[in-house]
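Risk register update: the risk that structure generation would not scale has been downgraded. Supporting records follow, first protein first.
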Amino acid sequence: MLDYRIRSFIAVWEEKSFTLAAQKLCLTQSAVSQHIKSLEERFGKKLFHFQGRELTLTAAGERLYRYAVVAQADGNKTVELIIREEKIPPLRIGATRTIGAYLLPDLLGTYLRRYPDADPSVTVENTRDLLEKLQRGLLDFVLIEGIFNREEYSTQTILQDAFIPLCGSKNPLAQEVVSIQKLLKERLFIREVGSGSRAILENALANYNLTIQDFYKIMELGNIEAIKDLVAQNLGIAFLYKQSVLRELKQKRLAQIRVPGFSIFHDYSFVTLKNSQYKDLYQNFFRISQGPLDKVSTP
């Protein structure tokens, strides 16, 4: 449904290469180049320029890309709705690992009880990867808690959660009031690059003129449960959202480390592409989910 030249434009930018875009679209490189040339002649402006060997968008290219990704996503959704002809439109939901594990099950449960014939699909990844899939039209909306440019999307706050330092309940740190500098002597268990919680910790440490590399040892894990288990064994510390450790805090497997002045709260956000014609359809999921969200224990 989208103009073939626009598809070439999107592919060139997402692949950062005319050659790779041509391979992705099963076209010749000269055909893709001609598509871009045709668009630039139509608009009377360059869409790309090179800085050395790096391909970048011009101001006109950025504006076109913002339009194009929404048009492509809405076009794909329209085709899907026409072909499937279902009373309950299928939803492709993305969630970060924290939300996917500790909040999304209740939201999905409420939605499926309301619409038992619904057939949603769920992708659980880090913030960076989810936003990339949203822009490419592979997801309808995402539930994320990371740092991102809110001006580029349509967003609503789901809830606010505390981001806290944690240790095992038998760790001496659990009984002390300590400085952030003292924590640097500990092994830090942390999520992978691209995760929202890692970005929030990096920003918080920057306020102390510190970085993750200032910790004694660092171990990256993509699994929150593994991080919690290692911390509970007194093998190091971690910084996690309070919603993800409520059970362990109640069971006294983990303890919140008291650090004066360290107070971070961050939003969980419902995010869709800006100006999507299906925005109301996606927000219906958010509206239905308000019930369980109202029952969530917030800091």
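Supporting record for the second protein:
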Amino acid sequence: MGAWDHYMQAPDCDDLPPEEASQVERAALRDELNDELAWFDQHLKDMSPGPATAERVTLFITGTYQWLDFDDWPPASTKETTYYLVVHKENGYGCLQPIAADGVTTSSSYTFDPRNPTPFATKDLLLDKAPFDNSQLHSSRKDILIFETPVIDYSLALVGEISLVLYASADVPDFDLCAKLVDVYPDGRAIYLADGIIRARFREGYRQPENPQPGTNHRYTLDLWHIGHVLRSGHRLRVELASAAFGRFDVNPCTGTDLATETDCQIANITIQHNITYPSHIILPVCEDARLTNGGS
């Protein structure tokens, strides 16, 4: 996995600090075609791979901006680590921490209007730009919940697969849950790392659609895909929750009817539980590889 867009070129990463953007652009110069041909030679012609492709996994790690080889995916040095969503802080944000909430009924709510859907990013952002700064989006919206860690004083390496478990309810027959994972820099920029979405009716899979009962808490598991990133000392890790990512995914009308023919929509009031009974949490692939944890400040 490398630092390429869909055209196998360096992505537009102007929102990164210049020294970091240049590292991504340099990494994208790697000859991926050579890697692909070496893989085919090994598996179709039984030829020995060259030194650059000898390992099963070669990954470009953002944050420390280095190519690393691993013997498997996820790496053996990666451990699933749970961080819980807990009650809001004084600034209106929630906390993201490895200790579960001790409240019995704590929750967070927001109102979602399909006629004014939460955008995936700010209006001036082209969707082919990634990574991008997401810091200005939430300040202009009231339909986004934020949970974040305190400022960390160590290197937190995330290498593997991410999943987010939310316990949620709404007063409508159907709704979406969207999430972003964000690296918050000391200067305030919030760089997008990963995202995922789930439609409530498909919480048990696409073959078993079932509208949730309004007002009833259900468990929703969002796949935030794969990551290879080091959160450096002085940064914070943030989870952003909403019910749309307009510009990236279609908007749920929240009526619970046929999505292809529905022309009406309903405003939804959505509640995310984060308490002893319903411990919403994110499962992070924390990697203890010394190559990542010893030099990412």
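The longest strand covers residues 156-170. On this basis the risk owner (M.S.) recommends closing the item.
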